[in-house]
Request: fold
Amino acid sequence: MARLVLVNYNSSSARSNKPPLGLGYLASYLKKRLDFHDITIVDGCRNITSRILKQNPDVVGFTVYSANHSHMIELIRLIKRKTDVVVLAGGPHITALPMGLSQDIDIGFIGEGEESLFEFMRLFLNSGQVSTQQLSKIDGLVFWDQGRLHITPPRSFIKHLDTIPFPDRDLLNMQSYMKPSQILMNNQYLRGTTMVTSRGCPFHCIYCHVSAKWGRPRFHSPDYIVEEMKILYQRYMAEAIYICDDLFSHTISRVEEIVRKMEREGLLGNLRFMVDLRASMVNSELVALLKRMGVVKVAIGIESGSDRILQFLKGSDVTVDQSLKAVEMLNRYGIGTHCCFMIGSPTETIEDIEKTRVLIEKILKMDRRNFCQLTVTTPLPGTRLWEYAIKRGLISKEVDWRGFSLSPLDLKRSDFYVNENIDFDLFKELVASTYSLCNSRRLVSILSNFSLRYLLRIVSDPVLSIRILRDFLKHQMARFWQGK
Ligand code: B12
Ligand code: SF4
Reply:
């Protein structure tokens, strides 16, 4: 019997505290369709090579992000030097740049992985190998054959998402993922985790890979969603769930049905949620529903205080005024926001950045539960921004992924800098001061969110106390070095 190991490798620079649900779905799908159970998921960054080899695998499958691409190739080379395994890779980077498949990877999986991996594993389990002739009959693959890359026709999406079982969280170290320090909502550390209720997004923001990768949105049914919530609540004892769909509120009737089902299952009031919304979709009917569901935090891509830049990034259906009104409305219902901003976009001027800074200040002053996050506009492969930047010669196609990071704290090289107006050294200073501004009210916010109940909980849990202190100090240090 063959053994499959699925790997989500986080380099120390891109460490994740959220479980790799994509691998969990792949595992549960193979179990369902093939009755194949010899699957392990190896996650994290410590001793990763020995942990993979210990499983004695026949096939190893890696998730590849642009951010971890170079680390991943190094890891794959190491594994291949030590053992003779078939190396598969899927995920956002392979999907975005299939023709850039490294020679170290035997087969790349483009887009949604469940059906393609099922077809591959079915053949592999039959004879212990899969010929290139057989591979060419599987949709959604890219592979090497005698030094040449072959790409098969695109894989069509699974029509009914509910046919995919819940991600196999038992293969993941959920105890570690669900430590209270991992899900932070309104500065309260809760025992929580993530789930996905849909795939795809109807919008086409220039910097985002999602609509290109996932196509038109598909949804899990409210029955499926609430059943998964129930498992997270009862079996994994979750207090909070971050629904990391790209856009949770596609329609109000869908959210309504979810809330009704939650009520019937006795879940209302027992779970707190964070969801992602688009400002143009926020209205009082939706916000009242979210409040009822238990949503305490909403992530919104506000991106810029300049309408000109915002429209370049997101299209003409969102304005700065609308974003501000969305935050105001959420706050009115007692919901905190996680507002995402980006600076360094093409054609952006110092005046545009100033408008963004003014907006950040306004939002932070509006409510202590508002948090502003800053990233540097980065052309990710598979996005229109990537095409735009290549076409204008702002970046090179031959990118060294080792320098890749979206974090303002890692801004060392200009390889991914796509603004033509502001000198890179000056830009670094602007990033540092805007980053500091985003975090300027953090302490006030932390202190004002301390309820007596929460304080007692922290005091009675020394591990949680140490974690909170550590996170706080880490953050202050980062601010200090940024300011320097
Ligand atoms: C939740 C999330 C996170 C979480 C958790 C990530 C995780 N461990 O899964 C956190 C917050 C940690 C995170 C971090 C980052 N993320 Co993120 N994230 C997402 C988000 C919103 C959902 C991921 C998800 O669960 N999708 C649902 C599952 C079903 O899809 P999936 O994981 O892609 O897996 C499917 C396929 O890709 C494929 N597949 C995946 N792996 C494999 C492996 C094999 C062998 C096979 C056969 C198939 C296969 O099959 C799976 C099932 O269909 C996506 C957007 C999106 N909708 O995908 C962005 C997204 C993946 N993230 C993105 C980015 C940029 C990042 C960061 C770089 C951000 C940062 N500033 O650091 C880091 C990188 C992390 C790293 N490890 O290097 C980009 C990736 C773009 C790119 N070219 O790499 C995305 C696409 C969003 C975007 N901006 O466009 N992210
Ligand atoms: S950023 Fe959000 S709204 Fe825009 S295309 Fe991506 S997922 Fe959709």
The CA atoms of residues 53 and 82 lie 8 Å apart. DSSP finds 19 helices and 17 strands in the chain.
